[in-house]
Amino acid sequence: PATAALGRWILMHAILVLLCKRYGVPFWPERSPRGTRIWIQGFLAMGAYMVLFTLGMKEATAAEGAIILGCSPVFTLLLAAAVGQERFNLGILGATLLAFAGVALVVGGAAHDTNAQIVSHLLLLASAAVWAVATIVSRPLVADADPLAMLTQTMPGGLIALLPFGALDLVRTPWSDLTPTAWGSLLYFS
């Protein structure tokens, strides 16, 4: 999984840089407070989120992962209200409590969960929260930005988290032994 996460980043970034060059849009963030926010957003959305998600899926089922990641919009709404991007009201509070109750019932209600499964669920919940923070950070950045440039410029920030997570596995991967299906899966994933 760490190899796939970092390999995906490498392929995505290479393709995005080529597209930026083709269409004449900047692929590297400017040196400014805005450029720093772009890197932070990339670190969160392209790096930390992926690391937490990958680790979290180690002991979770696909259904559990989907349900837990469904908390991300709820976290986003709460954070947006907290920083003044959205208005907070009783409807938001009620929807938040209902969403978290549903997740707790479906995911946390199984008495047979092992410690590893609980840790995986918490990592997935953290990945949903990180995605929400990344969304809040990106909101003022994307208002007047070229989507291709913005996506490409966030990528280097993600490498800060992905490189220590996946570099060793990437080097140890027997690339010549991968089947066409494995290569196709990596391309699809990317």
Structure description:
By secondary structure, the protein is an all-alpha fold. Helix content is 77%, strand content 0%. Helix 1 runs antiparallel to helix 7, helix 2 (33-56) packs across helix 7 and helix 4 (72-82) crosses helix 6. The chain is flat and about 50 Å long. The model has no long low-confidence stretch (mean pLDDT 87).
Count every helix, treating DSSP H or I runs of 4 or more residues as helices: 8
Strand content: under 5%
Helix content: over 70%
Helix-strand topology string = HHHHHHHH
The overall strand count is: 0
Radius of gyration: 18 Å
Counting helices, strands and paired strands, the structural category is mainly alpha
How does the major sheet shape up?
none
Detail the topology: elements first, then pairings.
Blueprint: H1 2-23, H2 33-56, H3 62-69, H4 72-82, H5 90-106, H6 115-142, H7 147-172, H8 180-189
Helix pairs in contact: 1-7, 2-6, 2-7, 3-6, 4-5, 4-6
Features:
single chain, 190 residues, mainly alpha, flat
Write a brief structural summary.
This protein is mainly alpha-helical and 190 residues long. The protein has helices spanning 2-23, 33-56, 62-69, 72-82, 90-106, 115-142, 147-172, 180-189.
